[in-house]
Design a protein that fits this description.
The protein has 555 residues and is α/β, with parallel strands linked by helices. The chain contains 22 helices and 15 strands. Helix content is 48%, strand content 11%. The strands form six sheets. A five-stranded parallel β-sheet has the order 4-5-6-3-7. Strand 13 (439-440) and strand 14 (448-449) form a beta hairpin. Helix 15 crosses helix 16 (389-396). InterPro entries: KAP_P-loop (IPR011646), P-loop_NTPase (IPR027417).
């Protein structure tokens, strides 16, 4: 009867010298599901006698940055309480030219540790005889002989129709060669290589099965054994392919399940690097796995929270550094959420999204005391820079016309309308307006007490782009045009006119109020005084910073 396995990743955990934060992406449920599924595939006592144990290979497909290494390490660590477990980081060991030796050494070492046995324990050790057979089984003797004596490929030699084709064959010193004797020797060597290899593999399977049995019996663990292979897509193409071949043809041992974690798309590129671009890599990889489970990428906000150092976005840090950002938020996660809204609207891929978020943080961390900046403006410009350098330069130069893909001259406002007109994502500001500006002085009205209290004020990204972003980069002669000109003034209003609009707003529309407060604070904090050329310098300096792919422990 299958055990019920419950995994709790709600707390931070440290093991093997690494620290693993709590499961902010809610992945434990996937690990539980896969555990029950794989246990049923690898060991089921309800099956017929002799068929209880089976071999199974699962491909855990997960794109870069989606947390597969965190997932695999935390999952494998939890399973050690119930099953024999081996975790292999293929990328850290691809300096080896032999994936088989990599796998065997990891299996021996980790099973021995799990069984709490000394290094010299004979119960989990590969006998010298078996190791010798493995080395002797390595192909190449016959081929090297043909190359040495004939300076030709072995296949060409063996496929010759008759000896007459090779009658003039000579060795390296120019002496004639007895081809019949040489052929007999080479064929015998090939057969011996094949037999030796088969015997070595058969012996190896027996040893591995016995090691697993030893761990289950000494530690009172259950079948199946789990072997996790991580980071295969980051390995050298030849090494990655050989590792898959090793798993498929050598480790098809009953009672063992493999979980091979890859970014399958990247692994397909590795296969094509070996077999050519026209090779059907997807079909080829499908031969190695019984099934594939895709670990979905988290939403961009959660993704960035894992990969970005947001400490320098906190209200506490900004106050201490004397830096004013817009929109102001004490909670760094709200600021990061605003950044992710823009990145998501530009459809930035995960790696690029991390780069841009890091550039925003790097810019803030290098600002001097008394500095101010519009985070939304900076992020939007970084996205334009990443998307199209020429368009970015034209925006900075206030040349808002450019040619689209069809060669037509269009305005930047048309681009924004086309790309973001349907965007409903909201920018958030957690502010207390009456504390920031206690008294409002609207045009043509006497001063009034500010009645807007603490709250999360919102405005859509669409409105920000048209009402704030375009304003900064519009030519003086160009009228400011909004997406909904019936709802908003087309003129640039000073702060008193904004106060007037605010207190005479009878409809009390949340997004309009949010936009008005953003504009008011833009003037109040003098963020509107930052010139386009200053943003250009920020962007070009920060964009020189490129993210180097993180190590597995951060994935």
């Amino acid at each position: 009867m299958q055990k019920n396995i419950f995994l709790d990743w709600s707390e931070k955990l440290k093991f093997d010298g690494e620290s693993f934060p709590r499961d902010t992406l809610n992945r434990a449920k996937y690990a539980e599901f896969l555990t029950h599924f794989l246990v049923g595939q690898g060991y089921d006592t309800t099956r017929e006698s002799g068929d209880e144990k089976r071999n199974y290979v699962l491909n855990l497909n997960s794109e870069w940055g989606s947390g597969k290494t965190y997932f695999l390490k935390r999952w494998s660590n939890d399973l050690k309480n119930n099953f024999p477990v081996v975790y292999i980081d293929a990328w850290q060991q691809d300096y080896s030219d032999d994936p088989l030796i990599t796998a065997i050494s990891s299996i021996i070492k980790q099973l021995r540790e799990q069984a709490d046995m000394p290094e010299n324990s004979p119960k989990i050790q590969l006998p010298k005889k078996a190791l010798g057979l493995l080395k002797a089984a390595a192909p190449g003797f016959a081929r090297s002989m043909a190359k040495r004596y004939l300076d030709m490929d072995l296949a060409a030699f063996l496929q010759a129709d008759n000896d007459s084709e090779l009658k003039d064959a000579k060795d390296g010193e120019g002496n004639p060669i007895d081809l019949s004797e040489l052929a007999s020797t080479m064929v015998k060597q090939l057969i011996d290589e094949h037999d030796g290899k088969k015997k070595a593999i058969d012996d190896l399977k027996i040893h591995v099965a016995n090691w697993v049995k030893t761990v289950t019996e000494t530690q009172k663990l259950s079948y199946p054994a789990f072997i996790f292979i991580d980071e295969l897509d980051r390995c050298r193409p030849s090494y990655a392919v050989e590792m898959l071949e090793t798993i498929k043809h050598i480790f098809d041992i009953q009672g063992i399940v493999f979980v091979v974690a890859t970014d399958t798309e990247q692994l397909q590129h590795a296969v094509k690097a070996i077999y050519g671009e026209g090779f059907d890599a997807r079909l080829y990889l499908g031969r190695f796995f019984n099934s594939r489970f895709s670990l979905k990428a988290p939403d961009l906000k959660s993704f960035l929270e894992v990969h970005t150092d947001i400490s320098k976005l906190s209200g506490e840090y900004l106050a201490h550094a004397g830096i004013q950002i817009l929109p102001p938020n004490d909670d760094a996660k709200i600021t990061l959420s605003n950044i992710s809204v823009i990145l998501d609207a530009f459809k930035m891929p995960p790696r690029t999204a991390i780069q841009i978020a890091d550039r925003v943080v790097a810019t803030i961390s290098n600002m001097s005391k008394g500095s101010k900046i519009d985070i939304l403006m900076l992020t939007t410009l970084l996205c334009f820079y990443e998307e199209d350098h020429k368009r970015f330069k034209r925006i900075i130069a206030r040349d808002l016309k450019y040619q689209d893909k069809s060669g037509q001259d269009v305005e930047l406002k048309d681009y924004i309308q086309d790309h973001f007109g349907g965007c409903e994502s909201l920018i958030k500001m957690q502010i207390n307006p009456m504390e920031l500006i206690p008294t409002l002085t609207p045009s043509n009205y006497s001063p009034r007490a500010n009645t807007y209290g603490p709250d999360i004020y919102v405005l859509s990204l669409k409105l920000y782009l048209t009402e704030v972003f375009l304003k900064l980069f519009s030519r003086p002669s160009v009228l400011f045009i909004s997406l909904d000109s019936s709802q908003y003034d087309e003129k640039v209003a000073p702060i008193n006119d904004l106060f007037k609009t605010l207190i005479t707003n009878s409809k009390n529309e949340p997004q309009k109020i949010g936009l008005l407060w953003f504009k008011i604070l833009n003037i109040h904090y003098q963020v509107d005084s930052i010139k386009a050329t200053e943003y250009r310098d920020y962007v070009e300096l920060a964009s020189a910073l490129d993210l180097i792919e993180e190590g597995a422990e951060h994935d």
